[in-house]
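Quick one - first record:
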Amino acid sequence: MSRQFLWYIPNTIEPGHRGDDTRTGWGTLDFSAELARAAEDHGWDGALIGTGWGRPDTFTVATALAARTTTFQPLVAVRPGYWQPAQFAGAAATLDQLSRGRLLVNIVSGLDNAAAYGDGESDPARRYDRTREFLQLVRRLWTEENVTYKGEFFAVADSTVGPRPYGAENGRTPRLYFGGASAAAERVSAAEADVQLFWGEPLDGVAERVDRLKALAASVGRTHAPLEFGLRITTLVRDTTEEAWRDAEEKVARMGGRSESTMDSGRRRAVGQQRLYDLARRGEVLDTCLYTAPGRFGGGGAATTWLVGSPDDVAAALRKYGELGITHFILSDTPYKPEVARIGDQLLSRLREPDPA
C-alpha cells in the first residue's frame, strides 16, 4: 500500500505557534500559501490545516490554498455541530470537484469553544454518537440521490448534492480521517472512518491499538474498505544525531521556563492526550528516539512527543511504524517554513525508498 506524507499548516493569526519565532504573516493567505507551495515543492502530498474557533476558517483557507497549488492536498479539520451534514457534504463535494479530487477531511469530535458557535452538545458519548450519524449521512449524500433521513441528531428530506465529489461515478469520495482513543471514539472509527489517526505513542501502544481496531472493525460489521492508519507527530531532524538531541534538549529547556506543567492542566481530560502525558513516567526516551519530555512543558497533541535524530534515525523509526500498518504520516516541526523544506528534503526521500531487506 502506498504511503502518504502530509505537513502541518497551523492556520492561526497569533505568532509563536509551538515556538515558531516568525513574527509576521500569520493569518494571511500569502503566509499559508507559501507553506503549501513549499510542501508541494519539497515532496509532501499536502498538509493538515489547523482548526479552532477564533482562527481563520479552515475550509475557506483550504479552498484558497487549493486554488494556489497544483498537487497539494488539504486535510481539512471539521466539527459536527459546527457544520450540518448536508451543508458540509455540498461544500466538500464542490471543493473536491474544483480541485480535481484533492480534498481530504479530518473529522474532530472533541470540544472547542462550542458555546461560541452554538454547539450545545457537551456530553462526550453523545458527541461520538452524533459524529457517527454525521459520517453516515455525509457518505449517503455524496453517493446517493434524493436522500431522506431522520436520525437522532440530523434530518434531511429529498436531498441531492450537486456537484458530486470528483470521481464519484467511479465510487470515489473524499477520504475521511478520524482520531480519538476512547472506546466510544474507536467504535466510530472502526465503523465509519477511512483512516484512524494516532498521536506519537511508542510502537507497542500503536501495535495494540491497530490490532484492537482491526478486530473491532470486524465485529461492528464495517461495510467500507478496510480501515487504514496514520501517525501525527513532531519530527525534529538535524544533520547528525548529536545535533538533533542538543537542539531538542535546548527547546525543551526553553519550554521549561513556563510556570505550569501541561501534565497538570485541564488538557488531561482527553483519553488520547492523557495516554501521551503518561508516557513520561515510562522514561524520557522510548523505543529508539521517541522523546517524551516535551509533554511536561507546553507540549500538547502532536507536540507532546517528538521523534528526534538524524534523517536516518527518524526514517528508521517511522519505518517501524510502517511495519505496524501505518501508511499515513502527518509530520511537522517549527519554525514551519524552514522545516517543511529540511524535513521534506532530508527525510521523505529516505522514506520513499524501498524498505531495507
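second record:
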Amino acid sequence: MSILVVGISHKSAPVAILERVALDRDGVDKLLGDVLSCDHVSEAVVVATCNRLEVYTEVDRFHGSVEEISRLLVQRAGESTAGILPHLYVHYDDGAVSHLFHVAAGLDSMAVGEGQILGQTREALRRGQAQGTVGPALNVLFQQALRVGKRSRAETDIDLAAPSLVSAGLDRVSAPMGGVRDKDVVIVGAGGMAGLATATVSRLGAAGVTVVNRTPGNAERLAAEYDARAARLHDLPAALSGADLVITCTGSNGILLDLDMVRSARPDSAPLAIVDLALPHDVDPLVGGLPEVNLVTLADLADELRDSVAGNEIDGVRHIVGQEVSAFLNARRQASVTPTVVALRSMATAVVEAEMERLATRLPELDGVARAEVLQSVRRVADKLLHQPTVRVKELANETGAVSYATALAELFALDPEAVDAVTRPEGLAPVERPAGSRVLGERP
C-alpha cells in the first residue's frame, strides 16, 4: 500500500479555478465518502482551505486511483475535464510524504509560513477520523505532519516573518483609509479566518467591531471574545451602512455582498474598504467598480505574498522538513519489514518446538534438566542464524531501489504470506494531538 495525493492549489491554478472546486463542510464529507468508495482506496483525508483542495489516500494501485480521484475533483468543479485536469497535481509515496510536510510547515501556503494551515491540517485529520476514513497509515502520516509544523514554528520565526492573509489585505487598504484605528469594522464569518481578522482589527484599535454570521451562536461566541457586537446575516445591510471596513471570510457558496446591497446601504457614497478573503468570493466583483469602494480579493494578494518571507527563515524550515521527511521514510521502510522478520522468527520458534516434541518422543528417558539445556541450545542456534539476516534486512530497507529485501527474505525462507499479513499494526487511532513524548512508528528516542 502507498500514499497518493491528488490536489489543486494557488500554485497550480488561478483563483477563478479554485473557486469552482471549493467545498464547504458537507462537501468535504461527501468527497471523503466518494473517495473511500473508489476500488483501490483504503483510507482518505481531504485538506480543504481557501486556496487548496487536496485528497490524501492510501492506495494499492497508482494509475487507477489517480484516474478515479481526478474524476471526482473534475465533477465537483462543474467544468470540462480539459479545463481542470491541467491544474491538478499528483504526489506519490515518498513525494506525498514530503508534500504534506511542506504544507503543514507553511512552505506551500499563499502567505508562506502562515500559521492557519497547521490548524486546517489538524481539522482535516479530525474530520477524516470522525467520518471513519482514516486508518493507521494516514493517521501516523498526519500526526507526524502536525509535529513537523509545530517544530518549524518553534525552532524558527517563520510565523512571525510571514504575513497572514488578513494582515496582507489590511496593508492593501490601510493607506487610503488612514489605518484601522478608530474605524468601524464589520467581520463577515465566524471561522478561523474571521477570528484572526477580529483579533487583528481589535489589536489595531478599531472603534467598533461587528461580527456577522449566518449562525447567531457562532457570531456571539466570537464577538464576546473580543468585546465586539454580534449580528445575524440578515442584518448585514444595516451593519454596512456605518462601516469603514468590511472583511469577509465565510464558507458560503454564494455571493453575500452584491452591488445592490452595497449601493442601498451606502447612499451617501462614503468611502468603504472591503477585503474579501473567501473562496468562493463573498463579494460580487462588480462592487469593486463603485467609485467609493476599495475592494481587495485573494487574487489581488496572491502574487505579492509569494516572496514576502525572509529567505533565512524559509531555509531553516526547509532544513527541518528535510530532516523530518528522511526520518519518517526511514522509519516507515524499517517498519515495513517488521511483519516479515516477526513471521521468520515465529517460523523458527515453531521449528524448534516441533523438533523438541520429536526429541521427547525418541528419548522419553530424557530428564527435565537435560531437556531444558537442549531447548536453550537449539534456541541459541536459531537466534544466531537469524540475527544477521534480520539486522541486515532492516538496514537494507533504508536503501532506495527496486529490490524489496523483505520480499526476498520471505521467498528465501518460504514464509507463508498469510503469516506475514497476520502481523498487523496496532489497532485503533491516536487522537489528533500527539501525546507529549510520543514518537512516530519506528522513531528512536
